[in-house]
Design a protein that fits this description.
With 339 residues, the protein is an alpha/beta fold. The chain has a domain at 2-183 and 232-261 and 300-314: NAD(P)-binding Rossmann-like Domain (Rossmann fold, 3-Layer(aba) Sandwich), CATH 3.40.50.720. It is 40% helix and 17% strand. The chain has helices at residues 11-22, 38-48, 62-71, 86-91, 93-113, 147-165, 199-207, 235-248, 268-279, 303-309, 317-330, and strands at residues 2-6, 26-31, 53-56, 76-79, 118-124, 170-176, 178-180, 214-217, 229-230, 232-234, 256-260, 266-267, 285-288, 297-298. The strands form four sheets. It has a seven-stranded parallel sheet, sandwiched between helices. Strands 12-9-14 form a three-stranded mixed sheet. A two-stranded parallel ribbon has the order 7-10. Strand 2, helix 2 and strand 3 form a beta-alpha-beta unit. The longest helix is centred in the N-terminal third of the chain and has 21 residues, at 93-113. It binds nicotinamide-adenine-dinucleotide and uridine-5'-diphosphate. Uridine-5'-diphosphate binds next to helix 7 and strand 8.
């Protein structure tokens, strides 16, 4: 079965491509390389010891997408492609709505034209806004606090409407919690542009000596130690969730919405300590102001994923930090500088 992976050169996409091929799927990657390096594909090819067909193109360009479907009979699409920087989305909302919402709508149109009606979409725990309680279940109220989050909510709604209009579609919405870590080989991983926004890449870059110290955004939250609590999930566990979803997608008779998280919450200070242990490096930090828009606590109830996808996160926080450190220490500049 041929699977189209949009955004397959990116962080989560590249790890998922490895697992899909290991599971016996044939994969076509579609990416515009806006936030990815071709080196990630070369590294994936090395891990799986075979070449991958990559089609360079943009979601918003119908002809780019059509060229994929003209050439290949695609049975399902795993749709990772999108922009993900929350801060940038506040400054450039139209860029986010165009890329993430319009791009997804064009993708669905072209899919329908070629009678491919099976899609797994990368949504996010951000669609729960500031939840009234934790752990978070899939039927909690939805609320977005920024254009990035709203773009995810909008695509979820679009896909639900597509299903209402034609219930032969197979649609799974996967809501990710906080993906971290890297493939155990240390050859592929997260490679943020410029100064990282997310905690784990910032900690890793501090440990490797690229940043002087980490700013801990607030120590006065109502949490175990006052710092923010999140559900960090190993990217390989997350990738496995997609393989399980794909294995089962034909069985589902409605739009499935599934949390992919571990069910455990770790604070910023706990993450610093775990990373120090894994890397044997000191991570200098200073307590700073709360970051606007942050919430105190966010972690999943992952029981529905177990029930419908037979999926459960397996990897511990120590493995997340060890694998993240292997990637960071072997590739201090990510994929940059490699042609
Ligand atoms: P990423 O930026 O590493 O990967 C996204 C990929 O999509 C990149 O390779 C980029 O070049 C490509 N892309 C973007 N716009 C495109 C377009 N118009 N046409 C073709 N390709 C395009 O991000 P990631 O962390 O791998 O995230 C994958 C998906 O998961 C995204 O949709 C993201 O919003 C979602 N998600 C990520 C996180 C996270 O913390 N990483 C959490 C929740 C949800
Ligand atoms: N955080 C931090 N310093 C940083 C980046 C993040 O203290 O440089 C905190 C942030 O306030 C939150 C947690 O780390 O409590 C996870 O933040 P991240 O941006 O990685 O994920 P998100 O907030 O989107 O869940």
């Amino acid at each position: 079965m041929k699977i189209l992976v949009t955004g397959g050169a990116g962080y989560i996409g590249s790890h998922t491509v490895v697992l899909l091929i290991e599971a016996g799927y044939e994969v076509i990657v579609f990416d515009n390389f806006y936030n990815a390096s071709k080196e990630s594909i070369r590294r994936v090819e090395k891990i799986i010891n075979q070449s991958i067909e990559v089609i360079e193109g943009d979601l918003r360009n119908r002809d780019d997408l059509k060229s994929v479907f003209e050439k290949h009979t695609i049975s399902s699409v795993i749709h990772f492609a999108g922009l993900k920087a929350v801060g940038e989305s506040v400054e450039k909302p139209l860029k986010y709505y165009d890329n993430n919402v319009n791009g997804s709508a064009v993708l669905c149109e072209v899919m329908a034209e070629y009678d491919c009606k099976s899609i797994i979409f990368s949504s996010s725990a951000t669609v729960y806004g500031d939840p009234h309680t934790t752990p978070i279940l899939e039927d909690f109220p939805l609320f977005a606090t920024n254009p990035y989050g709203r773009s995810k909510l909008m695509v979820e709604e679009i896909l639900r409407d597509v299903y209402v209009s034609d219930n032969t579609w197979k649609i799974i919405l996967l809501r990710y919690f906080n993906p971290v870590g890297a493939h155990e080989s240390g050859t592929i991983g997260e490679d943020p542009n410029g100064i990282p926004n997310n905690l784990m890449p910032f900690i890793a870059q501090t440990a490797v000596g690229k940043r002087e110290y980490l700013s801990v955004f607030g120590d006065d939250y109502d949490t175990k130690d006052g710092t923010g609590v999140r559900d960090y999930i190993h990217v390989v566990d997350l990738a496995k969730g997609h393989v399980n979803a794909l294995d089962r997608i034909e069985n589902f008779k409605e739009v499935m919405t599934v949390n992919l998280g571990t069910g455990k919450g770790y604070s910023v200070l706990e993450m610093i300590r775990a990373f120090e242990k894994a890397s044997n490096k000191k991570v200098a930090y200073k307590i700073a102001q709360r970051r606007a828009g942050d919430i105190a606590t966010c972690f999943a109830d992952p029981s529905y994923a177990k029930e419908v996808l037979d999926w459960k996160a397996e990897k511990s926080i120590d493995q997340m930090c060890e694998d993240g450190w292997r990637w960071q220490s072997q590739n201090p500049n990510g994929y940059k500088g490699i042609v």
